[in-house]
Amino acid sequence: MSIFTDIYNTVAKFFRQSDEPVIGEASKAVAANRLKLVLMQDRTNLTPKVLEQMRGEMIDLLSKYLEMDKDMLELNFEQEGDQVALMLSIPVIRAKDEDEIEAATQSTDDLTEEDCSEDDDLEQNEDENVEENEIEQAVKPKKRRSKKITPPEDFEGCNEEIITEPNELDCSSSSNEDQNVVCESTEA
Amino acid sequence: MTGRVIVITSGKGGVGKTTTSANIGTALAKEGYKVVLIDTDLGLRNLDLLLGLENRIVYTIVDVIEERCKLKQALVKDKKNPNLQLLAAAQTRDKSAVSAEQLKEICDTLKEQNDFVLVDCPAGIEQGFQNAVAGASEAIVVTTPEMSAIRDADRIIGLLGPKEEITSVKLLLNRVRPSLIKTNEMMSVDDVAEILEIPLVGIIPEDTGIITSTNKGDPIVNSEDALAGKAYRNVAQRILGEEVPFLDLDEPKGFVEKIKNVFAKLKAKV
């Protein structure tokens, strides 16, 4: 019996593709994804200091409306298909009530002038009883290549300019009913 | 005559800048063009070794700059091809012995008398890199399909972008191993080109012949049969503006291999 299995195995081995992936099959995909992320960070000159400052300012803003676990706040770049997204993940303990928000808003208004357009969005969410709010903002993969390499007339300027281009960016944050504020870039 | 000044750079060391410079230079010279190779890796010169010219060097680029000799005296003619000349780096000095302006001046002078001036850039992004790039109007970024080399290449591309004198930045992917790409263990040419977003000028397969050609001081483009030699000759053709298809790097398949593939396809269908 064993002789037959031996022969079978030998024959089967012969016809099996020699370079058939066995282990480490996806290692190239892992490498490509890791690289895309690290290059995204390399290309946007966002230093850890700037990221930390962004994080701090986001905490300040959001703590007006939400009581949250500040230590668990995560701010990361993530790859989503062809885009790189800035992911902010905050465990929410509870939403603040109106009086608290009023007080917090007034106290910060004295200090700084805030743009209120974003606040409206967040107030809608105030009553929703959610454990975790996730605010995603797709960051345009920064085209820092020179004009010579990829002639992009429409990438001349900074991000604000791109946002005014309706073809380039579909910004749906104002109409978004759920708790995710998503700005999506249509450009691959 | 105004020649083209092309810098060959990479960021990371050991990816094949010097091998690439030697081979592209030799290939262009074989086509009948007058070529000067400049080794700007002061203190770590190797281009002379790859060309087999290490015993012929009397004056170096630093001697030219410090006016101990004329530029013409420092140019070493290749053994096989008088169209190819080398301006060697000084082995006993460091990168600070030369300034970007001085190198630009040398490139400007040389391009008047030659069709091509190829500048072999040192690794890194410091002064050595800035010097090497100063006189160039085109750049070839050499990388391998490894993460660290690609990341460094990206950094270099980012640094070359704002330089207005540089009108073309192209990618040369070196040491490609088709067998690893096939098993998804190495990033493919397309993956790398997509990530780095610059046009490809060449794909060079990993070739053990490179080692023996370095040992002999004879660039691999001189051996007609070697696949890497053929790939480098194609790069030279592309630099000259020819449309040359990229080599099919899949290993030549024998009869047994073909049968195996048929069975593999059948198996995949089932």
Features:
heterodimer; A: 188 residues; alpha+beta; four-stranded antiparallel beta sheet; 6 helices; disordered C terminus; B: 270 residues; alpha/beta; Rossmann fold; eight-stranded mixed beta sheet; 42% helix
Could you walk me through the main structural features you see in this protein, from its secondary elements to its overall organization?
The complex is a heterodimer of chains A (188) and B (270). Chain A is α+β, with helices and mostly antiparallel strands and 188 residues long. Chain A is built from six helices and six strands; from the N terminus they run H-H-H-E-E-E-H-H-E-H-E-E. Chain A has helices at 2-15, 27-43, 48-62, 98-111, 117-125, 159-164; strands at 66-68, 74-80, 83-95, 132-139, 169-171, 183-185. In chain A, strand 2 and strand 3 (83-95) form a beta hairpin. The longest helix of chain A has 17 residues, at 27-43. Chain B has one domain (4-269): Rossmann fold. Chain B has twelve helices and eight strands. An eight-stranded mixed β-sheet of chain B has the order 3-4-2-5-1-6-7-8, with helices on both faces. In chain B, helix 7 (147-160) links the parallel strand 6 (138-143) and strand 7. The longest helix of chain B is centred in the last third of the chain and has 15 residues, at 255-269. The radius of gyration of chain B is 19 Å and the shape is globular. The A-B interface holds A 14-21, 24-29, 31-32, 34-36, 38-39, 42-43, 144-146, 148-150 and B 147, 150-151, 154-155, 157-158, 160-162, 166-169, 179, 181-188, 191, 195, 197-198, 259-261, 263-264.
